Amino acid sequence: MTEKDTTEKVRVRFAPSPTGHLHIGNAHTGLFNWLFARHNGGKFILRIEDTDLERSYAESEKLILEDLKWLGLDWDEGVDIGGPYGPYRQTERLELYRQYAQRLLDEGHAYLCYCTPEELEMERKAALDRGEAPRYGGRCRELTEARRAELERQGRRPAVRFRVPDEVIVVNDLIRGPIEFDSKTIGDFVIMKCDGVPTYNFAVVVDDVHMKITHIIRADEHVANTPRQILLYEALGLPLPKFAHISMILGPDRTKLSKRHGATSVFHYRQAGYLPDAVVNYLALLGWSPENGEEVLTREELVKQFSLDRVGKSPAVFDIAKLNWLNGVYIRQADLKSLTGMAIPYLKNAGLVSEPVTGERFDWLMDVVDSVRGYLDNLSQIPEHAGVFFGDRIDIDDGKARKIISDPETSRVLNLFIKELESLEPFDREAIHTMLLKMPAQLGLSVRKTLMPVRVALTGTTAGPELPNVIFILGRDRSIGRARQALHACS
Asked: For residue 398, what pLDDT is reported?
């Protein structure tokens, strides 16, 4: 079975729990759902699964929505925009879950369970002592009315358990093929807790049924949940959606990606100056491969090419070096005006600029950004590389740079540089370039012996943007001022 076996209108959902920032692994799942929906002209639904009342909080939901918007994963229905099958927040759908649970009770597919946590824990430990996998033994499966009444008089509040039939359950996975489960290993499971809150497996089935979800694309850690969900679909007499379980993302040591591997939230990469298109491009390549093997793909190209048929079964390893390389590609290709706007907050935080930056100052800043963008992995690095363009004075602290400044020939080089630059007309990059090319012959020195002292005098370093760009961006007066400062250091 493949994704092309259906002509129905594709409807997929991304359903994060609001328990913190959006994890990069969850963003990966959301992206695959979004790409699948957009490729097939379907709908992408955003649902918030907040029934874990102890861990869920509203501020996290807000952060998740901001991260998704930053990534450009727009949704067609969801918590903030509504839609025909809302509400899209689980805590606002509790009555719907109760109705479905009552239906299963009425039809004999579920029963009330009065077991206490202590009784269940004793049963679990006994199974482990016998070397067996813990599963519910069915104590409350066939309670009489009288016994139920007695337990309720004791003040016990019942949960609702699903009555698992004896059968082999087959998950027909679009990526992994058929996977078989023996229902004997599952045991009757709780669908509604005694406080009236649904369990995960029950809530997602009710939601997916009610929201007419056609394809469930999620991480492979959910494979074990799927047989329970299939049993619920069958008991409700409803057609199954198509399941596709994508491999989780691993750290470099091939264990599940976690904080010990470094940053794991989308928020971190936003703050660090990664471009959303680069992050989307990189995440798309984790577990999926385009037909032509290209690595740099626009959002439109990703949508056009994406197919579950090319999603692999093996886990993908998160490689920060690869992400840095790809982000650097996007920085170099970015629209300069937009890139400069994105760079300003980082320059401001470093105390190099103050907002607003407009007019000629913005145009000048565009030149600065353009001159250093080739050295950047992310925009948080821009103050380090662009700092040489700000201020009138420059510190020469680097050991190699100080050695060059102390060379006996440096004062001769800088004096000629000042003289030539003072009279240079017109003052543009081409004229500056020509001037620099002539200086070695005028001094009888090598190109390196001539130009390296100029670079060090103007930037304090031995490497960086092309020297004509540095001089042009600094301007005539500041370039001469820094050269004179370096001359003073020579003496």
From this structure: 78
Which of 222, 303, 387 minimizes the C-alpha distance to 31?
303
Are 404 and 462 spatial neighbours (Cβ–Cβ below 8 Å)? yes
pLDDT at 55: 78
Q: Which of 83, 82, 67, 84 is nearest to 30 (CA)?
A: 67
- Choose, from 69, 259, 313, 419, the residue flagged as catalytic: 259
In the residue annotation, 259 being an active-site residue is answered as: yes
Q: How far, in Å, CA of 415 to CA of 13, rounded?
A: 68
How many whole angstroms separate alpha carbon 200 and alpha carbon 187? Answer: 16
Angle between helices 276-284 and 320-333 (to 10 degrees): 130
Distance CA 84, CA 76 (A): 11
| pTM of this structure | 0.91
Give the contacts of 143 (CB within 8 A, at least 6 positions apart): 111, 112, 114, 151
Report the distance separating Cα 478 and Cα 484, nearest Å. Answer: 10
Domain 93-246 matching CATH 3.30.365.10: the answer reads no
Please answer whether residues 199 and 226 qualify as being in contact, where contact means their C-beta atoms are separated by less than 8 angstroms: no
- Give the neighbor-by-neighbor strand order of the sheet with 77-78: 11-14, 43-46, 77-78
**Which CATH class, in words, describes the domain spanning 391-490?**
mainly alpha
Contacts of 217 (CB under 8 A, 6+ apart): 12, 29, 32, 33, 36, 244, 246, 308
Q: Look at residue 392 and tell me whether its pLDDT is greater than 90.
A: no
Using DSSP's 3-state secondary structure scheme, residue 466 falls into coil
Question: In terms of DSSP bridges, do strands 159-162 and 110-113 run parallel, antiparallel, or are they unpaired?
Answer: antiparallel
Domain ranges of the chain: 93-246, 391-490
Cα 98 to Cα 14, 104, 160, 203, 397: the distances in Å are: 23, 10, 10, 10, 71
Region of poorest pLDDT, from 6-10, 201-205, 246-250, 407-411: 6-10
pLDDT at residue 260 above 80?
A: no
Closest CA to 236 of 101, 128, 67: 101
